[in-house]
Amino acid sequence: MTATEQVMSEIQGRVRERVRAELVRHGASGALEDPALFAEIDALLRTAIERSQPSALLLPELLGDPSTWRLETSIKYQTHRGAAGAPIIFVKQRILMPLLRWFYEFNRDNFERQRRINQVLFACVQELAIETTRLRRELRELSGRQ
């Protein structure tokens, strides 16, 4: 390990310890008082975040068609009224949308933040499912030996 890596590791350790202490101080689970357990949880969650690319997640595949569960942040101007709907679309595009642009932009940013959080949570659930499945397999193997 180089000197830089060693210094960075020490700094990360101090930051992690500070975060752990703050969480406990603010009422997080008492289990986090154990620094070793906290380090394992931290590693598990960091691994999940690193693997949170949409193409590396199983849960979105199981949810089916993305249009049924993914947020749509773009505005589509359409009508079911045929030619009679053209004036309504005109009013929406030329009058209402400019008036509400700031609100739309604000919400679009929030939707994007929520999409990222959902992606990370999907990755965390996947990591926990993997770990749970491994532990269940080990228990079955242990109980089969007895």
Structure description:
By secondary structure, this protein is mostly helical. The protein has one domain (3-145). It has four helices and no strands. The chain has helices at 3-25, 35-50, 59-63, 86-145. Helix 2 (35-50) crosses helix 4 (86-145). The longest helix is centred in the last third of the chain and has 60 residues, at 86-145. The chain is elongated. The mean pLDDT is 84.
pLDDT average, as an integer? Answer: 84
- Poorly predicted regions are none
Fraction of helical residues: over 70%
Q: Biggest sheet, open or closed, and with what strands and sense?
A: none
- The topology string of helices and strands comes to HHHH
Brief overview:
By secondary structure, this protein is mainly alpha-helical.
Give a quick set of tags describing it.
146 residues; elongated; 71% helix; 4 helices; mainly alpha; single chain
Give the SSE map.
Layout: H1 3-25, H2 35-50, H3 59-63, H4 86-145
Helix pairs in contact: 2-4
